What we know:
39% of the residues lie in helices and 21% in strands.
Amino acid sequence: MQSLKLIAPHLFFFAxxxxxxxxxxxxxxxxxxxxxxxxxTSGSVFEQNLNLTLTSLASNASLTGFSxxxxxxxxxxxxxxxxxxxxxxxxxxxACASTASIEIIKQCSNNNKEAAISYDNCLLRxxxxxxxxxxxxxxKLMLYNVNNVTEPVVFxxxxxxxxRNLSSNAASSTSKFSAxxxxxxxxxxxxxxVQCTRDLAGNNCSNCLQDIIRYIPQCCNGKEGGQVLSxxxxxxxEIYSFFLLSSPPPPSLxxxxxxxxxxKKSTSKVIVFxxxxxxxxxxxxxxxxxxxxxxxxxxxxxxxDPDQEGSMxxxxxxxxxxxxxxxxxx
Length: 330
């Protein structure tokens, strides 16, 4: 009984720690798209090819962060694509792709022949028609931060310049991804990233990004952050750092205090495996659990702290401006 009393604080600490570093937190669905115009029959050859396609995409996603496949013969050919966010680790890419390959069938449960599902870390898509190298820039979802910037004219000018530079970099790179930041006000930055699917040619990637940038005045004008997501490209901007890399790729200035997801995981492992004296453990447990309650309280508010981690796991801090032919799921 005495030994149980001694280890109880440790167990409490580890329970809180597991919640704080829960890896499933980034696996919230941003949107799912199910084309209701065409359906397949359960047990059909198309369904068999679809299952093989999803298995292939989930297996190959983490190799390069991008994979396409076509399985079967017409009229039962299934075309599939998976794209991981350009700054996620192989492990997170694999986890996201595996989850997406399962959830897309659940989300589109009416045997849809064309569907897509998007998470913060990846996008997975399949269809009965060949869509590779074809631009689809129609926004499936647009999101905005509820807070307004203090200097919208300056902000919009700086954001426009940053997105143009990032778009140019992404279009000319093999990764079709670019992230960076620029000055906004004293000690404040605009952070942004853009990405295209890697099957697009450079000019098609550039055109896709230009198309979705034009939607910013509709969804996010004067807002502290926003996202525009289409099947072929997407963008995001914030006044706080949300990059999963230890530092954003150029163009960038000195990045304010940021902690990458990998650093968090490393920290959690160190804390778990290093022996901590009982008194120190209880103090750390108290701090961690205070952070837990503080973080949950923040999620219930609509305001966004500039120092907050930029994960779409906090979708309840965002409002959906619109969804075209899709549904958002949280």
